[in-house]
Write a structure and sequence with these properties.
Blueprint (H helix, E strand, L loop, with lengths): L2 E6 L1 H4 L19 H7 L5 E6 L18 H11 L5 E5 L13 H16 L1 H7 L3 E6 L16 H5 L2 H12 L2 E4 L16 H17 L1
Parallel strand pairs: 1-2, 1-3, 3-4, 4-5
Pfam families: Lipase_GDSL_2
GO molecular function: hydrolase activity, acting on ester bonds
Protein name: Lipolytic enzyme, G-D-S-L
Length: about 210
């Protein structure tokens, strides 16, 4: 049975748009996009590795050092397998105001994760696997956590071409999520249920062709 590992942040975890700051919530398995993809990939096992707050490269001074995806991706790739494909959907948290990251800096963090996943150590461990790099849709600076993303929309709107170039250079597949979905106006960061269903369907289609 082929295995798909979905590595990401709260939007891979299934966090719904935030209404009350500090409350934990998660969409059910019928809604989360990795599970939607799983239903469209018969015979596949799908592993969900989404951590709310995860970045591609930054230890978070508020949420903790474990938010750094560089360590997280190593743990995930050594915890599961052998995998046949992996989705990588990160970058939303990297544009938080407190990190002060340029679009190029965010892309550099993604490059580091691709280098880990597609490097000899992990590829040999799993017998080779393909990576689908997904660029998150641009954020909106509104809602209960808008203060954490001041100036982030301009940065996030510049990520797609940088991600695409990375995918081409590293030999990964690429999906611009903004061509399929958009973030919720409720909090400007997370996906509504309808967006999860749409993204899951497209991911399944792309992975099925890998």
């Amino acid at each position: 049975m082929p295995i798909l590992l979905c590595f990401g942040d709260s939007n891979t975890h299934g966090t719904p748009p935030i209404v009350t700051r500090g409350e934990y919530a998660r969409f059910d398995a019928d809604t989360r996009w990795p599970r939607v993809a799983a239903r469209r990939l018969p015979g596949w096992e799908v592993v969900e590795e989404g951590l709310p707050g995860r970045t591609a490269q930054f230890p978070d001074p508020v949420m903790g050092a474990h938010m750094d995806g560089r360590e997280g991706i190593k743990i995930a790739l050594q915890s599961h397998g052998p995998i046949d494909a992996m989705t990588l959907l990160l970058g939303t948290n990297d544009v938080k105001t407190r990190f002060g990251a340029t679009p190029e800096k965010v892309a550099a963090g993604i490059a580091g994760l691709l280098d880990i996943a597609m490097g000899p150590e992990m590829q040999t461990r799993h017998g080779g696997f393909r990576v689908l790099l997904i660029c998150p849709p641009p954020v909106l600076e509104q809602g209960p956590i808008a203060s954490e993303f001041t100036g982030a929309r301009a940065v996030s709107r510049q990520l797609a071409p940088l991600y695409r170039a990375l995918a081409e250079a590293r030999g990964a597949a690429f999906l611009d999520a903004a061509e399929v979905i958009e973030v919720s106006p409720q909090d400007g960061i997370h996906f509504e249920a309808e967006a999860h269903h749409a993204l899951g369907a497209v991911v399944a289609e792309v992975v099925g062709k890998l």
